[in-house]
């Protein structure tokens, strides 16, 4: 009886450990890396704390680089590079794109989808990095959503 209980306990620990491993995806690592930067200053062209802060595409570039994926550096290049998806398909780690001119040919802002209807973003000078509601932030300038290509996630 004791041997059976010990075996069951071991199986339970293995299953719990396996569940934890599946939660450590590049997407969740990117979200965690971005979330760690909340409160950092906006710096035009910035992509690290060492540079004093981040701009919008610098934050997404940094977050995904921490997860082992190198994105293009600008928001417009990131928009061209991602696989376009619908809002209903959003998952943590996906990118959300905006344009001040409301044109997909002129992407001017990118944010990282954090899940639960939230985005993490670097707004503009004077506004620290923050986590905001997707459905209330600059919705009139929303262009679309993108997912990191599967080919970039493979080692």
Topology of helices and strands:
Elements: H1 2-23, H2 26-35, E1 47-48, E2 53-54, H3 56-66, H4 75-81, E3 83-85, E4 95-98, E5 109-115, E6 118-121, E7 130-133, E8 142-147, H5 150-153
Antiparallel strand pairs: 1-2, 3-8, 4-5, 4-8, 5-6, 6-7
Helix pairs in contact: 2-3
Question: Describe it for me?
Answer:
The protein has 155 residues and is an alpha+beta fold. It is 35% helix and 21% strand. It has a six-stranded antiparallel β-sheet with strand order 3-8-4-5-6-7, with helices on one face. Strand 6 and strand 7 (130-133) form a beta hairpin. The protein is globular and about 35 Å long. Mean pLDDT is 88; it is low at 2-22.
In short:
The protein is α+β, with helices and mostly antiparallel strands and 155 residues long. It is built from 5 helices and 8 strands, in the order ααββααββββββα.
Largest beta-sheet details: 6 strands, antiparallel
Radius of gyration: 18 Å
Order of helices and strands: HHEEHHEEEEEEH
Measured distance between first and last alpha carbons: 45 Å
Inertia-based shape: globular
Widest β-sheet, arrangement of strands: 3-8-4-5-6-7
**SS strand fraction:** 15-25%
In DSSP terms (H or I, runs of 4 or more residues), the helix count works out at 5
Quantity of strands, as a count = 8
Structural class: alpha+beta
- Look at the structure and give the mean pLDDT: 88
Given as residue ranges, the uncertain stretches (5+ residues, pLDDT < 50) are 2-22
Portion of residues within helices = 25-40%
